[in-house]
Amino acid sequence: MKLTLGFSPCPNDTFIFDALVNSKIDTEGLEFDVVLEDVQTLNEWAKKGKIDITKISYGLLPFILTDYIVLNSGGALGKGVGPLLISHSIDKKWIIEDALIAIPGENTTAHFLFSLAYPHAKNKVFLRFDEIEKFVLEKKGLGVIIHENRFTYKQKGLYKIIDLGDYWEKQTDSPIPLGGIVIRRNLNKDIQKKVDRLIQKSLQYSFDHYPQMSDYVRNHAQEMDESIMRQHIDLYVNDYSLNLGKRGKTAVLEMIKKMNINPVYPVFL
User: pTM for the complete prediction?
Assistant: First the structure.
């Protein structure tokens, strides 16, 4: 049986799925047609139900539960992993509600967390995550950064205004739900469970061989320095990636609750 599988080319995702998509583990009769895209593109495709299994921003989750259910493995949650609001100046006293803010996608967790911290800020522009540093450097406004930009913004002379993840943690005392792996709800339950088990097995394979970095991770990390790749993996891949567990699921449900949405369908496999 062949299933479509979508995730990002970022090191945390390629690290998780490497063994699965490159036959380093027994896939138990399943084959995967893999597409690598940025998370906002994957979000848009998930809204259309285009992919069988896909990475999504947890900020999108309540809006796709008709078609998808969350797997226990493969996601990104944790402490100290949230998006950052940055500026080009350390001295300027920014009025956030009046500034133009670049956000990495409308349905992203980054947008949700920014809106939670600044509910009255409405002057936004939605860009790909890797375009936001340039936007801020050109002094067009402020930016919310995610992924490897957390490790590069200082080198480019940019400054942190607030850690939006830290704001979430202080408000909820929960890990930050960044991105999860969802699977089509209409697939056979045994297939759903098998995919969940294989993703966990794939990640465990990568953990067992870490800090060795596979060519698959390197090749998709573009021009990223290997030390940045390791920081990326160390920050975003953890025990919650192996298994959401009760605490991880509680954090996801807390996010949905703060969106004032009451899910009709079961959220988790």
Answer: 0.92
